[in-house]
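Our consortium's second objective concerns turning raw sequence data into structural hypotheses that experimental partners can test. To show how far this objective has progressed, the report includes one record in full. It was chosen at random from the queue rather than selected for favorable results. The single chain below, 380 residues long, was entered without modification.
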Amino acid sequence: MSAQDITIVPVKTRRDLRRFAKFNVQLYRNHPYAVPDLIQDTKNSFIPSRNAAFEFCEAQTFIALKEGEVVGRVAAIINHKANQAWNVRTVRFGWIDFIDDIRVSGGLLDAVAAWGKERGMDRLEGPFGFTDFDPEGMLTQGFDRIGTMATIYNYPYYPEHMEKLGLKPSAVWSERNIPYNDVPEKMGRLSQVVLDRYNLHVAKFEHSKNTEARIYAHKLFHLVNESFAPLYGYSAFSDRQIDDFARRYVPLLDKRLAVFVLDNNDNLVAGALSMSSIARALQKAQGRLFPFGWWHIVNALKWHHTETLEMLFVAVKPEYQNKGVSAIPFSILTKSATDMGFTLGETNPELDDNIKIQSQWSYFKGVEIVRKRAVFFKSI
């Protein structure tokens, strides 16, 4: 597929996959606010043996070339599990980056649409990943703020291209900064009342971190599946994905920044994870763990050389939602964060229509929306 001097080609070789993975780092090199992808993580996302999402997804990556140089990239993804759950025939586009040339962005999306139509899809939507643990949502406000590990940074011209190409927003997220001073008094009182009312208690970490990971990882991610099921476009994690998440990520977390709320039978009813921000560390790594990228990341995680806490997610069992249970992990995390010297919490993207989670921020003073993002769609 080509438009004059722009050629869109499917990625078929290891060399082209590496070019695909490196393009984001190259396009945003030395940008003050962009947080680069880890090149190896991006490559692994599209190797079926290394990404459990291929159990229920299929994908094809594309690169845009101009005079032999990469000037854009995109991934076409069909998540069959999500399509079945939401009764749609959607081909997702993700990992999309492009220079400010409408021929490039248009050519990339045309390639995704054509690939999807060949497989019976009638709708194009993104940016989405394979699942909700991949970055999703194109930045539409907050271009003058550094991003986070879990989110997409993009130039302001990206959403302008979406509009010019006939795509419209289908969902909108907001991200907030939460100033940390102390646990809000009202939240602290509510937390204790709810613990007593429903005979709940907070798990005590008495074993090694790896042991705790084995105990709680599956419970937590199955709880996420229950809690997040109604959220826009959500795709439930498989056991193989959960095993992979536990192996790769849970041992990196500081147990002081993890909260597990249990009922009187030790069933998990709420859980929350946070971590020290590694955005600056990833900027220093410039997409590579070696030779020194790993050191910047470990340094940020272990010694917390930042005052910012990334609030990864909170999940509450459906039958305990709207009962104040979410105040428990929030109040405990806030206390831990202030004790550890964090002065600011950053939320991950939260859907603007997810009133349940957004209601928690009313307890805090000085909360600020710092970024907004959207996914875009059109019929194909």
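The partners drew two points from this record. The chain has two domains: 2-174, 178-371. The chain has a mean pLDDT of 90. Both points have been shared with the crystallography group to help prioritize constructs.
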